Amino acid sequence: MMMIKLGGSALTIKDAKSPTIDEVNLERIADELTSYNQDMIIVHGAGSFGHIYARDYEIGSEVKDVNDHLRKIEGMCITQTSVHRLNYMVCRKLQQKGIPAVAIKPSSFIITENKRIAVCDTTVIKNYLENGFVPVLYGDAVLDYNDAIKFAILSGDQIITYLAEELNADKVILASDVDGIYTDNPKTNPDAQLIEEVTKDTQLNLTSKNSHADVTGGMEGKINELLELADKGITSQIINGEVEGNIKAAVSGSKVKGTIIK
Ligand code: ADP
């Protein structure tokens, strides 16, 4: 079973003022995904469909008082509807290309505790896979057991890490808008060098701020998730989903330029 994460940065215009899909990228990525040749789960990021509201309503930060609680409840509803809308557009596009994409809403069955997944029953996902479907999950706003925050933003990166281990994925691919992990942010530092292999001993400079809004930790959050996965024996690869042909090569088993995390 393979898992592929489609970065919010590749699917949406991440620094847009309102939720904006990247139609051209979505069309091409959906086309490329049709080359998959084994069981597949897709997880996509939220991009501008999630981060704008999550930041506005400060989902995941401490609930200050009753009014803040009510405001955050409103924010949860709005964020969930927005990312669900992106998921609908992704699934519809995949279906148009002939991929049996079935939407799985993370906030309907996942609860976090201190922002880490605590409750997640994968029975339904397993059953869909066994029946030949391609489950499609996404970054979402979820309930959190920590009473001080009550709600959290669950990144697509955390979902992929959790499910890869739980469902024993043999291939984990993350398609982002850069070629992989660099010695520094390649969007702001032209001298940054691509690192082909990262382990927990690799010294990384991830202090540079992301070029666009991201409430889930950007590249740093992603690497921490993937190092945790590597620790459990599952290797993953970050590739550039904006380079034509990369996703097609990756899902059909060919070698692609990128960073391997092991
Ligand atoms: P996605 O939306 O694909 O999940 P993110 O937007 O969260 O990805 O993270 C990718 C971004 O991280 C890149 O666009 C890049 O600007 C930024 N970044 C910061 N530091 C680095 C680094 N050392 N190597 C690669 N990318 C980095």
Structural summary, described in words:
- The chain is α/β, with parallel strands linked by helices and 262 residues long.
- The chain has a single domain (2-261), classed as 3-Layer(aba) Sandwich (Carbamate kinase), CATH 3.40.1160.
- It contains 8 helices and 12 strands.
- The chain has helices at residues 8-11, 23-33, 51-56, 66-96, 123-130, 156-166, 218-231, 246-251, and strands spanning 2-6, 40-44, 101-103, 110-113, 116-120, 134-138, 140-144, 151-154, 171-176, 197-198, 236-240, 259-261.
- The strands form 2 sheets. It has an 8-stranded mixed sheet, sandwiched between helices.
- A hairpin with a 2-residue loop joins strand 4 (110-113) and strand 5.
- Helix 6 (156-166) packs parallel to helix 7.
- The model is unreliable at 208-213 (pLDDT under 50).
- Residues 7-10, 45, 176-178, 181-182, 184-187, 206, 208, 210-211, 214, 218-219, 222 line the site of adenosine-5'-diphosphate.
- The site of adenosine-5'-diphosphate has 22 residues, from helix 1 and helix 7.
